Amino acid sequence: MDSAFVPGLRLAGEFYAEVVRPLLDAAFPGLRYTAGLLGPGSEVLGFDTERSTDHDWGPRLLLFLTPNDSERHARAITIMLTERLPGAFRGYPVAFCLTGDGVARHRVQVTELGGWLTGQLGFDPRSGVTVPDWLAVPSQQLAEVTAGAVFHDGPGELSRARTRLEWYPGDVWRYVLGCQWVRIAQEEAFPGRCAEVGDELGSAVVTARLARDLMRLWLLMNRRYPPYSKWLGTAFSRVPGTAPLAASLTAALTETITDPAIRRLPPIGAADQFMDSTDALGELRYPRAVVAAGLERSANERVM
Question: Is pLDDT above 80 for 299?
């Protein structure tokens, strides 16, 4: 294997251009097809690393045919590729096993587009996308269809489907954002409630859940389909302007939040949360006096 890691999308594009396309042109001249790399796999989202090469990774493609051509040619194309593909490309074996599969074979999957889209999404977006369609598809699945790369699209059908799925319609987007805020609102008080009874572990667990939901919210706000947990942090970190929010979430996840002095404070908050007078806020003795009174009240209540 070459010492320098080659990202999977780039490897797939070169594999198609230098190996697969010439074979198709020679054996099936005039065939209208689509070639690309979509679906599951870290390389589709651009998250693959050298570690990714130890499972389900190598020179691979999807070849999409029309229904008629799939019925007539899919098996013959698969056999032709099995016989003529090289043993390796850019130092990576062309035949490899999927996890738990145990059988080494080339990974140029020849299939019909409509069936693949329906298997991936639960519906074929070329026939339209309804509100229930949008809401029923996990964002990971939407990311897998709209990310990756299309190297050739003779019929143009896949490109049209991907454009249709590029992002939620405005009203659906606002609905999903609102529901994400509701998830956060339902648990935002719980870290403090756990802290009040000395449940440090419980507080940390809920804080982590809230951090995940806030990361997903940030991705949604920036028109990015949130991936599943393995890649959530990577996707989150690649959104421009994320650093301040990332720092706050990291602090929340790593700091102890069950300080008794904080737990026992009355719920009056910081100065500009309980005062709305410019003059009062401008005279620091006023907010300091209110905070001092609150602390004194807490101390008296503990004594009683």
Answer: no
Asked whether the beta carbons of 165 and 172 are under 8 A apart, the reply is: no
**What is the structure's pLDDT at 87?**
92
Q: Tell me how far apart the alpha carbons of residues 121 and 119 are, in angstroms, rounded to a whole number.
A: 6
Q: How far apart are CA 121 and CA 45, in angstroms?
A: 17
Measured between alpha carbons, how far is 142 from 161 in angstroms, rounded to an integer? 11
Q: In what order do the strands lie in the sheet with 60-65?
A: 95-96, 105-112, 60-65, 33-37, 149-153
pLDDT number for residue 137: 92
Amino acid at 87: G
Q: How far is CA 49 from the centre of its chain?
A: 16
**Residue spans of beta strands (DSSP E) within the chain:** 33-37, 60-65, 88-89, 92-93, 95-96, 105-112, 149-153
Quickly tell me which residue has 């143009």 as its tokens: 156
Class at the top of the CATH hierarchy for domain 8-166: mainly alpha
Kindly state the tokens that stand for 219. 């991705």
Tokens of 48: 């693959």
User: Between β-strands 92-93 and 88-89, what pairing exists: parallel, antiparallel or unpaired?
Assistant: antiparallel
The reply to whether the predicted model has a pTM over 0.90 is no
Task: Please state whether 195 falls in left (phi above 0), alpha (psi between -120 and 50) or beta.
Answer: alpha
